[in-house]
């Protein structure tokens, strides 16, 4: 049975005056996959995420997320999608539990249900021992993991992660990568991952898309992209080598 498409864009375009941030994007992300969204700063990755969330209006084209149009049904889309931005913010006078209680309340969870969910999530992201610690004292890695717990409060079908390991030390990055993979494998959550760290993207992703100057210039599995650019051979190419080949020829 063919896997269903859970994110789809058709000619999705975003212009700011004479500047085109996203240019006619046609993209499909399948249910249950980790899709790596690659490209340099200014390529249009974050702008695309914002349009998929209904936080930015397309200039042309359309998108669907979980079968919903984000432009017309932004609130419904947000019920299905968890978004972890590049810089996660918290009220620094709250501890981890209070932060999650606040988000649970915003999402309409009853208190008993929220308490059980928060305890489960703190264990899942490895912060159970830090539950009563103020977020002001959290390291960046701890904040990222607490951010993941926040977006999981509503049991999303899809996660949008924008540079989730940026600024993390190697141990913190590995912990977060393992967490993302386990969420995908065990809870079957679809992940759209925007990152500059090609080694981490290669480790996690089932397929990748490469954006340059607002246009999607390549999409597919790492093996298929390597074959397209380098042909069939004995050598295995890294995602970094593949990416640079596309980037140089763009």
Automatic annotation (TrEMBL):
InterPro entries: AAA+_ATPase, ABC_transporter-like_ATP-bd, P-loop_NTPase. Transmembrane segments: none annotated. Keywords: ATP-binding, Nucleotide-binding, Transport. It comes from the Bacteria. PROSITE patterns: ABC_TRANSPORTER_2. GO terms for molecular function: ATP binding; ATP hydrolysis activity. SMART domains: AAA. Residues 7-238 form the ABC transporter domain. The keyword Cell membrane does not apply. Belongs to the ABC transporter superfamily. This is ABC transporter ATP-binding protein. It comes from Candidatus Desulfacyla euxinica.
């Amino acid at each position: 049975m063919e896997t269903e498409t859970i994110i789809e864009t058709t000619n999705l375009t975003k212009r700011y005056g004479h500047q085109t941030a996203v240019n006619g994007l046609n993209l499909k992300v399948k249910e249950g996959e980790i899709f790596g969204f690659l490209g340099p700063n200014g390529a249009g990755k974050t702008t695309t995420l914002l349009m998929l969330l209904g936080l930015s209006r397309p200039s042309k084209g359309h998108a669907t997320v979980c079968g919903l149009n984000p432009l017309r049904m932004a609130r419904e889309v947000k019920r299905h999608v968890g978004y972890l931005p590049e810089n996660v913010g918290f009220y620094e006078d709250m501890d981890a539990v209070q932060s999650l209680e606040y988000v649970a309340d915003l999402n309409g969870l009853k208190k008993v249900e929220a308490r059980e969910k928060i305890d489960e999530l703190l264990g899942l992201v490895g912060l159970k021992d830090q539950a009563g610690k103020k977020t002001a004292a959290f390291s960046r890695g701890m904040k990222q993991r607490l951010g993941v717990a926040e977006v999981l409060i509503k049991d999303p079908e899809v996660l949008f992660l924008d540079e989730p390991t940026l600024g993390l030390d190697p141990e913190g990055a590995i912990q977060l990568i393992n967490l993302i993979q386990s969420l995908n494998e065990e809870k079957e959550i679809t992940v759209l991952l925007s990152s500059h760290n090609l080694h981490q993207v290669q480790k996690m992703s089932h397929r990748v898309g490469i954006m340059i100057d607002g246009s999607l210039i390549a999409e597919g599995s790492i093996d298929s992209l390597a074959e397209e650019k380098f042909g069939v051979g004995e050598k295995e190419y890294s995602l970094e080598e593949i990416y640079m080949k596309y980037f140089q020829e763009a």
